[in-house]
Specification:
This protein is mostly helical. It has one domain. It is built from 5 helices and no strands. It has helices spanning about 1-25, 30, 45-65, 75-95, 100-120. The protein is globular, with a radius of gyration of 15 Å. It is found in: Membrane. Keywords: Membrane, Transmembrane, Transmembrane helix.
């Protein structure tokens, strides 16, 4: 189970890092022009950049804190934050009629629930 939790956290971290780097460094106008990025045209550039930085921090919180042994409790805490982020993403994409992205966000949410449950529970780093 420990290996499955590491894999799930690693997958989520890869998603968070990719999305975070994109939102932080790609111009909002360019993001708004790609499939699934239309929502960025409806919000301010500071919001998009802030979300990107938070996603980069989430990638670090999901893997690095435990791998380096620095506050590994941040892994399940970050997973809970990712769950909240995915709920927001599902609402946003749902309102825009992007059902395929809602399903994708649901899959990420399920992985985050698994990580949060496992790291707060049976495979806790503190136990």
């Amino acid at each position: 189970m420990n290996l499955a939790l590491w894999i799930a956290a690693g997958l989520l971290a890869a998603v968070a890092l990719t999305g975070g780097v994109t939102k932080t460094f790609v111009p909002r106008e360019k993001l708004a022009a790609v499939h699934g990025g239309g929502w960025t045209g409806d919000v301010g550039p500071v919001f998009v950049k802030t979300l990107g930085v938070l996603e980069i921090l989430a990638a670090a919180g999901l893997v690095l804190t435990a791998a380096l042994g620095i506050a590994p409790v941040l892994v399940p805490v970050t997973a809970v934050c990712w769950i909240l982020l995915m709920i927001g993403a599902m609402v946003t994409h749902g309102r825009r009629g992007e059902s395929a992205l809602v399903v994708l966000n649901l899959a990420y949410l399920a992985l985050a629930v698994f990580v949060a449950w496992g790291r707060f529970g049976p495979e806790s780093f503190t136990g």
